[in-house]
Amino acid sequence: MIFDAQVDGHDVRVEVQRRDGRYVVTLDGEAAEVDLLAAGVGFVSAIIEGASYEAGLERHKDGYRVHLDGDVLDVALADAARGAAPAPRVASGPTQVTAPMPGKIVRVLVEPGVQVEAGRGLIVMEAMKMENELRAPRAGRVREIIARDGQAVEAGALLALLD
Q: What kind of fold does domain 95-162 have according to CATH?
């Protein structure tokens, strides 16, 4: 998966690949092997190229605030792109909500038939040991929820349909 991030005002191209139960994370062309474990609510333990790190994560509107070795970094995440530009927002007509990366469905937040505003949380998904809320790309009515709590999904899997 490839996406753009902004770390304390600096743009970074990020590619994440799962390999042998670990991740290979490439930041602006430099690859590192990463093993990531949840270490309690809002904390992760990471082994990056053999070195161990503990980090605190606070979710905010555009991404995360990361507390690492006494420093605080603001990390804004752009829409996920699989090697291409992010999909344009659809103003009307049926819209698919898909998994941006492989992961596990933690919680479904809406029922079919519910009218939602753009940006409303639809599904909570765990990926790379972090929970991510997938939001409605536009206002509309939830036609169908395909995802189920506890379900493992691949990148690009259809999770919900909006009318």
A: OB fold (Dihydrolipoamide Acetyltransferase, E2P) (2.40.50)
